[in-house]
Amino acid sequence: MSLDNLITFRKELHAHPELSGQERATSQRIIRELKKCKPSQIIENLGGHGVAAIYDTGNPGKTILFRADTDALPIQETNTFAHKSIYDGVSHKCGHDGHTAMLVGLAQKLHRQPFNKGKIILLFQPAEEIGIGARAVLEDPKFEALQPDYVFALHNVPGYPKGQIVCRTGTFNPAAISLVIKLQGKKAHAAQQENGRNPDQAIAVIITKVHELQNYDLASEDFLKFTTIFTRIGSPDYGISPGDGELHYTFRSWTKAKLEAAKSKIVQIIETITTQHQLSYTIDWIYYFAASHNDAFAAQCVEQSALKNNFSYHNKPYPFQWGEDFGLFTEKYPGAMFGLGAGEDTPALHHVDYDFPDDIILYGIKTFYGIAEKVYNSGEMHNR
């Protein structure tokens, strides 16, 4: 498969995006291309619509897993190019189409230039955007037999020079979780709201108290950021003082422990304020993303691969602030996630006009292959 064919494949994926948990046709397109690259085994329906291609040399050596994510987002695309999404309200605005194309390209390279020891697993993971794909794969009995020694993944990062490799040892991106807070009071006539229990003041106080918990200092171990996603009080019926409301948040911190501490504080705030305002409440915790922790040896392999390929390398002083469910893999196996510069002028991830830059595909393939070389050349001496 030439680069032109990889680009064609990437654009095919872009034109036919599928939301998290619905990647059925995407997985079939991936399998079609993988069969051309002659892996030792292809595992289908892994953790849902996941696919794994295995290149097993049959000789002793480390097992290395490389992961790409495959799902799209519920975003209406505004681009007008020929490969724009054919579906209203669904588009690849995070570059998972590009990540998938790179891993298919790596399969092609492994077919042409196989290693003489060890095993390579190429994992095409579904449902990353909603934080359930990694867990579903890890809990799938079909994954039990794979058990990698090292795990690696990348994410394209607009705002960095094209092809630059961005990595660090330790936390690469934060633990993150979302929550839905629903408040229940009592409706009343708008002219006599004292006869009901309107949640408006409680919601105003909760918003203030939650924001007081924040710590925006990226250098601090206590970094904590909240984002208000959605609020609602009652309905647009002007004769009614509402009796219900809700708040949706996403928040993130560098470690799971700090996240759990913040969760406890939020619960205390909700309990105190709802008691004061005579409201009942429910809290639902959704979309958990574990922090990605980069093992020192694995991060060194990323850097050495970048330098061997004469790629620009940036040792990031602080973690990225976006969540990524690859963190569940690094909780279980040593590994590393790294960024691949998508261009300083490329629209940001999740923007309506974003499109993955095809000219960085080869950077991803070469970096992944170089990582495997480094693991096999020096990793055999590394003690997990």
Q: How is this structure best described in words?
A:
This protein is α/β, with parallel strands linked by helices. It has helices spanning 3-15, 24-35, 96-112, 133-139, 200-212, 256-276, 296-308, 327-332, 361-378, and strands at residues 41-46, 50-56, 63-69, 119-125, 150-157, 165-167, 170-173, 175-184, 188-189, 224-233, 240-241, 244-253, 280-289, 292-294, 313-315, 335-341. 31% of the residues lie in helices and 26% in strands. Strands 1-2-4-3-5-16-6-15 form an eight-stranded mixed beta sheet, sandwiched between helices. Strand 1 (41-46) and strand 2 (50-56) form a beta hairpin. Helix 1 (3-15) runs antiparallel to helix 3 (96-112), helix 3 crosses helix 9 (361-378) and helix 5 (200-212) packs antiparallel against helix 6 (256-276). The protein is elongated. The protein starts with a helix and ends in a 6-residue tail after the last helix.
Range of strand content: 25-35%
- Biggest sheet architecture: 8 strands, mixed
Which geometry do the CA atoms define? elongated
Strands, total number: 16
Under the CATH scheme, which class of the largest domain? Alpha Beta
Structural topology:
Blueprint: H1 3-15, H2 24-35, E1 41-46, E2 50-56, E3 63-69, H3 96-112, E4 119-125, H4 133-139, E5 150-157, E6 165-167, E7 170-173, E8 175-184, E9 188-189, H5 200-212, E10 224-233, E11 240-241, E12 244-253, H6 256-276, E13 280-289, E14 292-294, H7 296-308, E15 313-315, H8 327-332, E16 335-341, H9 361-378
Parallel strand pairs: 3-4, 3-5, 5-16, 6-15
Antiparallel strand pairs: 1-2, 2-4, 6-16, 7-14, 8-12, 8-13, 9-11, 10-12
Helix pairs in contact: 1-3, 3-9, 5-6, 7-9
